[in-house]
Design brief:
Structural class: alpha/beta
CATH topology of the domain at 33-245: TIM Barrel
Helix content: 25-40%
CATH class of the domain at 33-245: Alpha Beta
Strand content: 5-15%
Shape: globular
Oligomer: single chain
Number of strands: 7
Distance between the termini: 21 Å
Order of helices and strands: HHHEHEHEHEHEHEEH
Number of helices: 9
CATH architecture of the domain at 33-245: Alpha-Beta Barrel
Strand order of the largest sheet: 1-2-3-4-5-6-7
Amino acid sequence: MRRALSIAVTVGVAAGALATAPLISANAASAGDPFAMTTGLYVNPSSPSARWVAADPDHADAAAIRAKISTVPMARWFTGTSDAQIGPAVAAYTGTAADAGDKLPVLVAYNLPGRDACGGESSGGAADAAAYHQWISTFAAAIGDRPAIVIIEPDSLGDFECMTPAQITERNSLLTFAGRMFAEKAPNTWAYLDAANPNWVAPTVVAKRLKAAGLSRVRGFAVNVSNYVDTDRATQYASQIRDHLGTGTPYVIDTSRNGNGYDGQWCNPAGRRLGARSTADPAALHLWIKNPGNSDGACGIAPSTPAGVFDPALAVRLINGR
């Protein structure tokens, strides 16, 4: 998953498409409150770190990874390749969360065509727009009336520099469609569009991109997904985006790996640390969206670990801050 190092300062080729974007109203897509319907965030017993601990319980690092990572609520990522049958997979996950004492699951939809378009470490996604329509519609319908939080398509609004105007238009259309599907088919879901991070896209630019991508159809936006920006700076960035939107739109901050802040590197940098644990406070929603220990790509301190693969050595470094 790509996280650029420089801030974009112009909208560029997308400006014409953005100029006609409708104004949004805060909470326009809200229906049921998933927090009021549940008893806390769901801890996935089959997260990548939990599966590793279960497979190697006698490893010297197993106890630390269990205590510091695998028992913390975090998002479950769904892609076109990770779950061949997206409907049954989403239904099973949200159903298991409900059966675990009415817990609230956090899901990530990550299957946009041309995903990670300008980065490449997490390339892939649905084959075309029609395939994505089917996939995301099935995803939303599988949640149904169950309460959930969904982060829609990390990377999607930061990767414009290598895209054509037609590709940008299609991407905005697909994101708008995704928001509509969750609003229509999953009324007790709070969905958030990804809004990059302060090292990637300027607040004024991402605000325009959010509007063009259908922000009015979802609960709000998410910042710092899979990145390392400290919470104070991420909060300032989110507040600046809201200022440019002209609304009080809710937002989420990914705190999974931001304990030591950002050091100029986005791909498996050394010296980072776990951030504050997920909170169930809608007024200050901090979530572990990235799964700590999952590689950003074959780079940094994990040059042979592909993106999305759990690496216990990465996990231990995040625990110890080294």
